Amino acid sequence: MDTKVWKISTEDVDSESALQKLKEIKTAITYGEVVGLPTETVYGLAGDATNPEAINKIFNAKGRPSDNPLIVHIHSIKQLENFVEINDSRVSALMEHFWPGPISFILPLKGDYLPSRTVAELPSVAVRMPSHAVGRKVLQFVDVPLAAPSANISGKPSPTDFSHVIDDLNGKVYGVIASEPADYGIESTVLDCTTFPYRIARPGAVTKEDLESVLENSVDAYQMTMDKPIAPGMKYKHYAPRQPLTIVEESVMNWKISEARNKKIGVIAPETTRDKIPEGVKFVSLCMDAADYRNAARNLYGALRIMDKSDVDEIYIYAFHRDEHSEALLNRIYKAAGDEIIKEG
């Protein structure tokens, strides 16, 4: 059976037509089904976070490792009272400043409100409050916390448009909400608040600098560690197309292309490099120039999916300069390609 599609835009989210679709979505989730949910980061695969049947469907549809915890999505801080401890006014201050928005907070778990598989048997849980108008409306209407990892096959590029969800999960999940594409295009920042200073467990749109503009000297920088992940994206290879993906500096891009004889090469890079790429090479523009990190992040997964569907044998992706503003973008590129960079000399 094909996955059901509900079309709800931010403009008509309060219409009578949208209300009927919201009722269908609530019924589906109430009965343990999972649906593709738009958020401002990426599309999530959402199910009732308190329902073991729904959680199993999320893991099975994605082929997700069982030790990879799920982020729980809420529409109101009051919902947290059922399953987390917040005894730190500094955490409350960060929530008040950044929610709704692209950040998740890891907090101590309390009670047995959430099944152990939702949190990968950890003593903590990551929670977030998305800002996408349609995603928030669904959360308010359903009025239960929703576990919602990215709505893709585990390890593949995350979905930023409802069509990506259909590509990966048609027939594997009950439905998907067709709405506006994700604005940020990469997953939320995850901040571990179980220790102090707080620690960035996964970089995203909200940076260390942003957090410390609210609370000075409160956040340790991101470090890629952990055999047992406390947040999604910490342990496993992610975001990868089927072809080999290599990070290449612009200065050696053409040399690398010429070296790859008898191979069809694809290049993902800023628009400003297009005229330097030889004819016959498939080129996908990621952003306007090398400093345009925001658009590069927004377009990254879509670009990887275009290449994934193409007939290229190997993909080269532009080596962006590393700084605080590019950290989340580079995190996703490295997770997809590995650590090696082909550079001059």
Automatic annotation (TrEMBL):
EC number(s) recorded for this UniProt protein: 2.7.7.87
Domain YrdC-like as annotated: residue spans: 19-206
Pfam families per record: Sua5_C (PF03481), Sua5_yciO_yrdC (PF01300)
Catalytic activity: L-threonine + hydrogencarbonate + ATP = L-threonylcarbamoyladenylate + diphosphate + H2O
InterPro entries: DHBP_synth_RibB-like_a/b_dom, Sua5-like_dom, Sua5/YwlC_C, Sua5_C, T(6)A37_SUA5, TC-AMP_synthase_SUA5
UniProt GO molecular function: L-threonylcarbamoyladenylate synthase
Protein name per Swiss-Prot or TrEMBL: Threonylcarbamoyl-AMP synthase
Organism for this UniProt entry: Corticicoccus populi
Taxonomic lineage of the native organism: Bacteria, Bacillati, Bacillota, Bacilli, Bacillales
